[in-house]
């Protein structure tokens, strides 16, 4: 968690200094934070889990070949290291990325964010 996301000690002290029955001042002390593109950051949703998918490639083969496969079989995909792939959250494409290897791990570097247009 970055320092920007965490509550500072003064905020915590303010919460505990209030009497239990005292009205709570819910007005923000600072304007809402914004990211580089000017979108408002909403901390309340930071803990929500989402399903992220990056399709590394596809392959076509007859069912007969698929049925003959066993443990250790290798399926060659149509993508290579350095190729661009789509990245989705909950089946909605949100970015494009580049397939790469970093310290023996397969990774995807985000190279372009996709802006959603009206539904």
TrEMBL record:
Nucleus recorded as keyword: no
Segments forming domain Flagellar motor switch protein FliN-like C-terminal: 45-114
Protein name: Flagellar motor switch protein FliN
Protein's membrane topology: Peripheral membrane protein
Region ranges (Disordered): 1-40
Domain of life per record: Bacteria
Major localization listed first in the record, in broad terms: membrane
InterPro entries cross-referenced by the UniProt entry: FliN-like_C, FliN/MopA/SpaO, FliN_T3SS_HrcQb, SpoA-like_sf
Biased composition (Acidic residues): 1-16
Pfam family, one: FliMN_C
Signal peptide: none
Family label: Belongs to the FliN/MopA/SpaO family.
Keyword line: Cell membrane, Cell projection, Chemotaxis, Cilium, Flagellar rotation, Flagellum, Membrane
Organism of provenance: Kiloniella antarctica
Subcellular location: Cell membrane
Species lineage: Bacteria, Pseudomonadati, Pseudomonadota, Alphaproteobacteria, Rhodospirillales
